[in-house]
Amino acid sequence: MSKSDKKIIILTEDELRKTFSRLTFEIIEKISNLENLLLVGIPTRGVHLAEVLRKEMLDKTGVNVKKGIIDPTFYRDDQNRVGTRLIEATDFPTSIEKKDIVLIDDVIYTGRTIRAAIEALLLWGRPKSIMLLVMIDRGHRELPIQPDFCGRKVPTSKKEIVHLCLKEVDGEDGIFLDKI
Is the separation of the CB atoms in 46 and 16 below 8 Å? Predict the structure, then answer.
């Protein structure tokens, strides 16, 4: 992440932890059977975020919710615009058939990553439900996809980038905005 003076703090470490807690309670309220829940992270930050939420749920309920990974890279319709990164293997600890899935990503922007992730998920089976959790909704949707659980809505320009930083990965916790 850029350490320039253009960096704006959206959520501090303390605010981020409170947001994790709130989102965890929202999921617990919405899902009647946590044993049937599968948290599915989208690389890269969605995977780490899914682990944070899994731990929060374990602390709050005693239920060790299952966690998986779905990499939608090959299902994107805009690969030539966004480029590629190293692909992470899709990994589910159980069948997704008839599961309540919470698909997790750090930031929703155009909705194309989420569309691709849903397409990839459906090739693995037919879940009972798919809900979307994002930490930041920055607007600019190109597809009619909206999160069921959202940390914060942050109107941005197309010349800004939002970063979720997690201590385990980045050495600091918080959500930041950079101007390009």
Answer: no
Provide DSSP, the chain. ---STT-EEEE-HHHHHHHHHHHHHHHHHH-S-GGGEEEEEPTTHHHHHHHHHHHHHHHHHS---EEEE---GGG-S-HHHH---PPPPPB-SS--TT-EEEEEEEEESSSHHHHHHHHHHHTS---SEEEEEEEEE----SSS---SEEEEE----TTEEEEEE-HHHHSS-EEEEEE-
Cβ contacts of residue 27 below 8 Å, gap of 6+? 37, 53, 57, 102, 133, 149
Give CA separation, 26 vs 82, 90, 145, in Å: 32, 26, 19
pTM: 0.91
* Tokens of residue 22, six digits: 């709130």
pLDDT of residue 84: 58
pLDDT at 1 over 60: no
Question: Which of residues 78 and 52 earns the better pLDDT score?
Answer: 52
